[in-house]
Amino acid sequence: MSVTYHIGDLPAGLDLGPVVAIDTETMGLSLVRDRLCVVQLSAGDGDAHVVHFPRAEYAAPNLVRLFSDAGVVKLFHFARFDLAMIRRHFGVRCDPVFCTKIASKLVRTNTDRHGLKDLCRDLLGVELSKQQQTSDWGAAELSPEQLAYAASDVLHLHQLKARMEALLDREGRRDLAQACFRFLPARADLDLAGWDGEDIFTH
Fold first, then answer.
1. Pairwise CA distance, residues 155 & 159, whole Å
2. Which CATH superfamily is domain 2-193 in?
3. What is the Cα–Cα distance from 82 to 57, expressed in whole angstroms?
4. Confidence of residue 131 (pLDDT cuts 50, 70, 90)
5. SS3 for 10?
6. Where are the domains positioned within the chain?
7. What is the pTM of this model?
8. How far apart are CA 126 and CA 42, in angstroms?
């Protein structure tokens, strides 16, 4: 495994393939108050790219190009939050999307544990450490421990996607999952517009 550390953007011309695992690290979980600090990505080859934004400056044309590329599937775990953060800070709507958390909720109905740590342990036999989750991602420079943590959040998503797709096919829920994934950018827009705490589909 290798982790490549970038400041402010990906290098021009970097090809991460047709399916890119993406995650974000932020100062907190408020879409209004907290800013994006890190975007980490992987092509599923065992390597990760960590893009750090030590200041609130988001002129990142190479990242924006990737996010908006309709020919690239953007692979997340809990895409709803990441999509909203990307939309807010980069002004771009990611599509198409695959979310391993939603897929898990559709097929692993025998459990209520759908976190990334749970999926990696249950499906891949991999134990993830969450020790750095609440560290200061807005620091001027990321520590080796932070880089390793950020990388771990994207390095296993391609394997999880393959497992989720097999389970979705087994349970006959692939089309339902795709419909959910197509709606996710709109769900993120609703969150940013103030409906993050309300289910507008209830009576």
1. 9
2. Ribonuclease H-like superfamily/Ribonuclease H (3.30.420.10)
3. 17
4. low
5. coil
6. 2-193
7. 0.96
8. 17
